[in-house]
Amino acid sequence: MKTGPETASEHDAAADDKPRAGVAGRSVALPRNRALRLGIGIALIAGGILGFLPVLGFWMIPLGVAVLAYDVPAAERLRRRVEALIARRRS
Question: Over pLDDT 70: what percentage of the chain?
Answer without folding.
Answer: 80
